[in-house]
Amino acid sequence: MTPQKSIAIREIAPSRRNSPLLLLSLLLTLCGGVCAAQTPSPSPASQGNQGLPESPAPQQASAQGFWARLAGAYREDWHPTQPAGPAPLRRGLPSPLDSPPFPNADWSYGGSPTIGEADTNTYPLMTAWNGAKSRTKVYGWVEPTVNGSTSSHSNSPEANDLFSNRLEMDQIVLYVERLPDSVQREHVDFGFHLTALYGTDYRFTTDKGYLSFQLLKDKHQYGFDPSLEYVDVYFPHVAQGMNLRVGRYISIPGIEAQLAPNNYMYSHSLLYSVDPFTDTGALATIQMNSHWVLQTGISASHDVAPWTPDAKPSATVCASYTTASVNDNFYLCANGINNGKYAYNNVQQYDATWYHKFSKTWHTATEVYSMSQRDVPSVFGPIKPELNTFAAACHAGLTTCFAPEYAAVNYINKELGPHNFISFRSDYLDDKKGQRTGVNSKYTENTLMLAHWIGSTIQIRPEIRFDRAWDRKAYDNGRRQSQFTAATDLIFHF
Q1: What angle do CA 336, 256, 238 make, to 5 degrees?
Q2: Pairing state of beta strands 458-460 and 314-322?
Q3: How far apart are CA 323 and CA 132, in angstroms?
Q4: Closest alpha carbon to 43 in 95, 94, 92, 89
Q5: What is the largest CA-CA distance in the chain?
Q6: Dihedral angle at the C-alpha atoms of 157, 264, 423, 319, nearest 10 degrees?
Q7: Which CATH class is domain 20-33+63-493?
């Protein structure tokens, strides 16, 4: 799953009574001097960058109070009075998409900022705080959601709107971030990222060893997860730039990601629901030229901290190729590869993603993968699976067996204008032994949605969805073979 880049977004305590404003105030205080003091100065343009337009000048903080400036930032976002600035600094191929309305402007790859792209994003909170003058930024969003379902107990294996017929707070997210300057080619630069996530979606980022008792032991509906903590170091003289990321980051292949604004739709595909979520390790991303990006790294295996007994040294190797027309991108990954022996989420994943742009307003995104583990405990055997995982429906007489999964998803997306797009998703999952969903069956789902933006700070994404398990009853805790849901989220960025 890949952290995408949005025009206004990048890739909280375990109680409903905790105030997100209290957490925000605390992090603002902690960040304080760093965020206010780091004023960016333009890097001297290298020979290859001469002639590129300059980034727009940061906004100046007025003499008004903080809350008045914050209200003014939203007012300007929703009803702009200033003309758009010049195109931001960039090396390499142009962006293929408009963002908004799409969640990302580029054919994205995981585990790194887009090398050669400037960080020109501004956010209402930073505009009100210091006129958006610092490279270190604090921002985030809240995401309330609601769904109606033909299931009455659980929408599982559907992700995000897991709880049937509920109004929920899926995500309250706060980022503290500094992106390395990868446009310049003169000096090594650095960045970092910290994430605080609270809500029902913590279960889709939980990593064993990082406060995981909330889900694995206590089964909390709401929880807190420090989803991402990493340092980026940019080396300009390796090929056309290399980013080295060290820490905890999102598992890198795929179209979808855990953080709500980085996805086409509110709900997730079945393919996403059962694949790895986050890794802890080191990942090098190398821009070989305008067309090729290569990645290689090592992690502690999927969804486990290095200090847990389930940790295993695991290799990741990926390659991304974009055509000269920027109409096609191919992204291939071997993700978390080791001996494949059963451990907490130790799936061996081979993933391929293809993006294709038909025209200025039409594009499609397709992903397929194969995953597996060996020596998975049998539902008929004496070995208990790890907490919050499923045993495999092995043949009678076996205590363990090989458990594979195969999946494919396709999105067809149509831009309706600068604030709207529609998307249709079709999805297939074959959970051969039921080790990922708890029921060995073939699954399909089809979803139609509309995304609407208000400025670049509010997203509304209503959808209708139909799921079916083809071999046996798998929905509503085994009561239904099919499921219909209507749902929406609202993402409010700050």
Answers
A1: 60
A2: unpaired
A3: 35
A4: 89
A5: 76
A6: -90
A7: mainly beta
Residue carrying structure tokens 């027309």: 325
**Model confidence, pTM:** 0.86
416 DSSP β-pair partners: none
Q: Could you read off the pLDDT tens digit of each residue along the chain, which spans 494 residues?
A: 444 333 343 333 333 334 343 344 434 443 444 344 333 333 333 333 323 233 344 444 456 899 999 999 999 999 999 887 777 788 989 999 999 999 999 998 999 999 999 998 899 999 999 999 999 999 999 999 999 999 999 999 998 888 999 999 999 999 999 999 999 999 999 999 999 999 999 999 999 999 999 999 999 999 999 999 999 999 999 999 999 999 999 999 999 999 999 999 999 999 999 999 999 999 999 999 999 999 999 999 999 999 999 999 999 999 999 999 999 999 999 999 999 999 999 999 999 999 999 999 999 999 999 999 999 999 999 999 999 899 999 999 999 999 999 999 999 999 999 999 999 999 999 999 999 999 999 999 999 999 999 999 999 999 999 999 999 999 999 999 999 999 999 999 99
Residue 17: partners with Cβ closer than 8 Å, 6 or more residues away: none
Closest CA to 308 of 370, 377, 386, 397: 386
